[in-house]
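agent> Task received from the user: take the single chain below, predict its 3D structure, and emit structure tokens. No templates, no multimer pairing.
agent> Plan: (1) validate residues, (2) run structure prediction, (3) serialize to tokens, (4) report one or two observations.
agent> Step 1 OK, no nonstandard residues flagged.
tool_call: predict_structure(input=
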Amino acid sequence: MAAVYGAQAHGRHAPPERGYDIDPGADRLFVTKIPQQATREDIAGHFARFGTTTDVYLPSIPGMPGHKGIAFVSFAEPTALQLAINNGPHDILGHEVVVDVAAPRGAQPMANQVGMSMGPPSGGNEPLQDQAAADRLFVT
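)
tool_result: status=success, residues=140
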């Protein structure tokens, strides 16, 4: 079996006390499984109890009604994000949503962010993989 580098020994949504390391400067949540009837105001209202929200981005599908069911919630202070992560589960309009720390704006996607890598950590001199190949995991 191929080696997996960068894997973490915790669940994706485990709270910090169970080994989930949160960047102390992180100030943005990634929220999934948002019900279609939820609005920006519903999401902002829910997370405002943890601190001042500065932005709620609820992306839509061009040409389609509704949204994608995901949102990015930005806070004025990183401590608000910590409170939100530590005080789950979260329920919006009667539906449990999934909350995680969003990747920093402008961050390049990395294979080991999801706990998988196709080889040892690189020194940065190797050419980038073709995107189609990067989306596959081969087990031997």
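agent> Step 4: summary for the user.
The first helix runs from residue 40 to 47.
agent> Done.
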